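Researcher: Let's continue the batch. This sequence belongs to Soluble hydrogenase 42 kDa subunit, and it's 396 residues. Same format as the previous ones, please.
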Amino acid sequence: MSFQNPVFIPGPTNIPERLRKACDMPTIDHRSPLFGQILHPAREGVRKVLKSNSAQVFIFPSTGTGGWEAALTNCLSAGDKVLAARNGMFSHRWIDMCQRHGLKVEIIETPWGHGVPADRYEEILAADENHEIKVVLATHNETATGVKSDIAAVRRALDAAGHPAMLFVDGVSSIASMDFRFDEWGVDVAVAGSQKGFMLAPGLAITAFSDKAMMATEAATLPRTFFDVKDMAKGYANNAYPYTPAVGLLNGLNEACGMLLDEGLENVFARHHRIAEGIRAAVGAWGLELCAVSPEVYSDTVSAIRTPEGFNATDIVSHAASAYGVAFGTGLGEVAGKVFRIGHLGSLTDVMALSGIATAEMVMADLGLDITLGSGVAAAQDCYRGNRLNADKAAA
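Model: Same format as before. Here are the structure tokens for Soluble hydrogenase 42 kDa subunit:
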């Protein structure tokens, strides 16, 4: 694998030099006011990226999985009931975590390639007259299948059913790359990680809690120590953590939020959509299909691409790494060996995306698939050039 080539996995993503330098800093006293000058701006930056005015942001030295655990253990008690759709590997893993914590999970089995079924949420919530369901889980962007779900529709389902359950959202592969509206969508806990849209190395679980979720922490009895948000809040009040923080990564997060806000969130989202559209144009030119079943669920951060029946898609990932030093993502769970994934999120440009498309073409041609070299690149070029020309006309 070459350190010179960009990666095209759904995370960790490419790290801009500006952020690498921000993380490379001398040791400081993490219980001093100086640390507060890193911590509090980073938390405020995350709040802005989430489009929230009131969310309480807690950042743990962990990963998105730790963020899931923080959401559950701070707000629930053993035996509480949770409603969740299982439509991919990461929704499955969150459900598994719930079950390991002694929670009762009502699972809506959903075909992989589909988004979460808001209509089924509404039916089940409306039938729950005793309000036994305490939390609804939703994966905003299912990384295994390249599927985004309509979180606003899930909120509407809760409201239509008149149900008081909290809404927890896994935004690990969407937040900071795709539009996320914490306040508008009535999200109670959102979970992200440092290694995807925030363009950093793995190591931070980024969570945001609503006032309602913070109230739930008072009654929750699931065991928690490392992930206790009340302990964290006390530490934050004194410019500190209840334990040793990842100071360099937090400094990088502060800088990453600055980069995103300087670019403009709507510009960030438009860039991701544009790059994704080019990838999708290439897939169509290759005569292949996405795992995502329809345009309304196409992800702007990762595309899971189906290969012909009988072909092992994992061979594409292996050959790309060994022959060209380029990383793509393998299929996971039910789609293992059936898809390969192109991650197109974080620090990425049209030109970088074209290099990934060209490499994928070479790999598939090497492996005997009926791919015309240059076909996907040309389709993506048309997409990117057309977008730029339209933007120039609009600006004229």
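Researcher: Any comment?
Model: The chain has two domains: 17-262, 264-395.
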